[in-house]
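Question (not urgent): is this output format expected?
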Amino acid sequence: MAGHLKNLIRLNDWQVEEKQRALADLLNAVAALEAKRRQLEDELVSERKAATEAPSEIGIYYGNFAKAALVRRRALEQAIAEGEAEVAAARDRLREAYRELKKYEVAQAHRDTREAAERDHREQLFLDEIGTQAFVRKGKRPSAT
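Got this back:
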C-alpha cells in the first residue's frame, strides 16, 4: 500500500510540473501580446510625429494608418484579456493540482511517521526481552561462595 501513495505522489508531481509549464507558456504568450501592443503604440507615436513633420507627404496616409492601428490595438487588447483569463484558469488548475499533491505527501509523511513509531516500538520490545532474559540468567547463575 505504501507504494500506491508513492506512485500517486510521483503522478501528481508530474501533473503539477505539466501545469506549471502550461502556465509559463500562457504567461509568455500574454507577454508577447503585450510587447506587440507596446510596439504598436510606439509605431503610432512615430507615425504621428512623422505626419506632423511632413504633413503634405505622409499626413494624408496617417489617417488610414491610425484607423488600422486602432483596430489592431483593439484586437490585441481583446487577445490579452482572453490570455489573462486563461492564465487565471491555469493558475486555478495549478493550485488544485498542488493541493492534491500535498494531500498525498502529507498522507505519506503520516504513514512514514506511524511506521517509524511501530518499528521503534518493536525494537524496544525486543531490547526489553533481551534485557529481561539477561536479568533472569544472571539471577540463576550458581554462586561462587
